[in-house]
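Sample log: 5,6-dimethylbenzimidazole synthase.
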Amino acid sequence: MTDEPPRFDDAFRERLHALFAWRRDVRRFRADPVPEALLGQCLAEAALSPSVGNSQPWRFVRVRDLERRAAVVASFARCNAAAAAGYEAERAALYRRLKLEGLREAPEHLAVFCDEATECGHGLGRATMPEMLRYSVVGAVQSFWLSARARGLGVGWVSILEPEALAAALDLPEAWRLVAYLCVGFPQEEHADPELVRHGWQARDPRGASFTER
């Protein structure tokens, strides 16, 4: 006896395509709180993600303490200033005009770590590619993101941060490595196109929708 697999029709596939297209990185959030049950549903679906050797190495940390959040904002400010200094002329000016985070506005902050000391999975599948643990966490982040978007929530991934400083500020186990810092909340505005495309930073690269044959 086996479980009957679900049947996905054309209507479902069209809506799934719309979900991918509207996933979008959000940087502008409303102040409305995220209901606990809604956040819990998204985390539960993220936990269904595949992982190397069934290691399930993702560790979601909800950051609510204001002092810890302030440390994250300070880290972003340092990193953002250094990044801006790496550009010149018009590109530098454009960079400074971009809104690259929603740290002050987002009602929820989630730091997502990879537990590189996890005993789950017994090391299967990562002897030659230990980075598969972190790739598994990235998959869980994407699952969380799609689940959130399907429920009307927006997610913004902030990468302009100092991983070591964040781990210290959050007082976490040494073996946990930062993979993502997510701002979560209801979007202030909705756009089908990526913000960096809309504001002239970078157009879509057609190579992303193709593959190479050998």
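Observation: Residues 66-85 form the longest helix (20 residues).
Observation: The first strand starts at residue 58 and ends at 62.
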